[in-house]
Design a protein that fits this description.
18 helices; mainly alpha
Amino acid sequence: MIIGQALEKSGLHRRFALGVVSVVGASPRRLIAGFLCATAIISMWVSNAAATVMMMPIAISVCLLLDSEKGRAGGDDPAARQGFEASVLIAVAFGASIGGIGTLVGTPPMSQMKAYIVTQLGGTLTFSDWLKIGLPVMGVMLPAAWAAISVRAAKLPTRDLADVHALVQREIRGLGPVRWPEWAVLGVFGLAVLLWVASPWLCSLVKEKCGYDLLLGDATIAIGASLLLFVLPWDGRWSRPLLTWGDAERLPWGVLVMFGGGLSLADAITRNGLDKAVADAASGLNGAPFLVVLFVLALGAVALTEFASNTALVAAGLPVVAALAKAIHIPAIPACMVLSLAASLGFMMPAGTAPNALVFGTGRMTMRQMMVAGFRLDVITALLVPLVVWGAWKLGLTP
């Protein structure tokens, strides 16, 4: 969260997003893909809601071009203009949800899943371990989301939006050259990601060469990167650091409280036997193929997350799924992964996720437009997520 706050304060996120949009071109469908991918990459490192808030002004700026006489690439057809506006904003929301599952720091359910696997199931799940699963899921979900949004979901302009390129270039020029705060935040961010990925190799190398056990966990790296942001200067005069505590006060601390409450809820469910009671009720799955069980878990999680907080659903669901796995003799960790991933990928209802609620609140789309695209992607999620996790389990990539 602190690294994400630094990315936002320095403006680095905006420079990156504009760069991606400028590369994809001015075709309506390519612009939808650009906003989808740019938001997903940002959401891998900051909260889904923050990524949505960061990208929405850029998306709305592009939409406003269609409201002007000069920017009406769809001619006088208001349905095409409105369809494009809705599609771009839906792409931002869907990209934020999909990007959040790419890393363990992207969204609270991923961190919650890791904590449960480590503390309750006795497994190990590092940042680099999860990339082997999270990135493939992202890799299949992003094209699926693009198809769900842009293929026969809403009427789109038939010509390229020529003014979009000029707008994006004007915005990029307005940012000016890359400044020191952006370079500094980029350096700290890059160092953190590098250490997250390479820490297992680095620890084994130090152990082999020096005989010293280097305790370099994901949390240690995150805290070290955060401390650097409070020490490095904003400018050459050392007048103030890159981040101050005033910046940190604006973090969504309530999410961390809810995260801790979720861990407490999961522990209470296990201690009081509720997980076993629910697992006994689902004993009819005993003997079913592992992949079929994963499909059932994914379908149930996708349906429930449209009406419940994904963090609360994962907190309550993990101990139940673990108990069910034990009762019907299937691997618990892949089952918990499917639940957590599917619960984080609700797309149909505006209230299902924070990104959906934020973009729906702009008033530039109808409930039907979000539900049509979201229902398609929910079905795809319930099919693809179990397949990817099952494949990772077969390849020995899961703990």
